[in-house]
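Honest question from a wet-lab person: if I give you the sequences of every part of a complex, can you actually get the arrangement of the whole thing, not just the pieces? Trying it with mine:
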Amino acid sequence: MDLLIPPYSSPRPPLPTTSHPSRLSKIALHPELPIVAFAQAHAGGTIFLFDLRTNAFLKYKLVLPPSDQLNALVFSKYNLLAAGTSSGRVIIYDLNLSVAASTSTKPLNRTAVSSYASLIPPQLPSFSLLGEITDLNFDPKSARYLAITTTRSGTWIYDTVYSSSLRLSKYPSSAVAFSPTENVLAIARERTGEIELYTLVRAGTLTFSLPTVSKSGFKSTVTRMQWADDGKSLLYCNDKEEGIRIIYVQCQPVIPPSTAPTVNSTNAQWPNI
Amino acid sequence: MAQYLGNIVTPLRTTTTRGGVPYGGVPTYFTLDKSSKRLVVSYTNSPLLEVFSFTSSGGAIDAPSIGLIRGPSTGRSISDKAKGKRPEGQSPFDEDSWERASCVDMGFVGQALGDKGSLFAGGWNGDDGGKVAFVAFYLDDISV
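Yes, you can. This is the full assembly:
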């Protein structure tokens, strides 16, 4: 078992269950609709959905497992909401975000179609192998692929259509961002200040190049990344460092698909686990 | 494949109004609006967010600071000045009717204000719990 388990990703102490007042942890903005999701900070908290079209809460009651604290929350443009937790779980909710859904008075606790992104077989302990989920990002073009970064097992690509997964990088990672216009994926490695840049090819499934590793300028973790609208300028900040830095990323020709991992080649990754 | 373009500096400063609220330093979160013209940054140990006007062309970066966003209002004794229309990115942080809360996450809302504006949403944790506050950005309001 060569899974990289650095000492800094040891389990955190149990989180105290807070009473009142309730505090926020994460918010997520729908990329195309004026809908905001926000979640309570305590373990087992609830995710709320607010619709600015109607100035009303959507009548969903999305409750996390009792031991799970929310670490990441992201929408896809096709109304999937992914929640990544401190226990290594990724829960994907398939939501009806129509105006009728927010104005309806009937079902008080509407149930969302939820599923778990299975990165490892369910009989295996997710936290021991995966660590915490640190960030999530949907592929903005297809809204089908979800990039998942973790503290122990690196970065995964999850196909929401076929429920299959690929371990793209073994390095513990803190942030991930698909370019909105270019076929590039950026992944920030924890504690090294390095950013992995993958060129991807869309031919039925995603195919990834080998990564180019770029220095961020500091040794500390890149804590947040966002692409500008040109899809080539990547803004990021480092832990405990002033300023926001920008790099310009150009796509490189991709290596032949036969030598690159694809999202369907999940089994090829399992020997590493 | 990657070329370093530059750095948006965020030195530690304080507001010049009474109280001298600190801002700047180490960023905790930031977000760009969809047009990539407005950059909002939160900092460790500051209840204020800073707004930059961001442009990038031909490898040159320009990002002057254009204003500050304060935490959500407490709802107590908001003055007429605070209620009135204010320039983009200028919150009434010299008033006492706002919480010195910390921003925990942020982003821009899709399609909320059409093509001419962007609606910023911030999540805040204060003494009386978490709040989500919104700030509208109308790009015509300012010329930098």
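Two things worth pointing out. The longest helix of chain B spans residues 80-83. Chain B has a mean pLDDT of 81.
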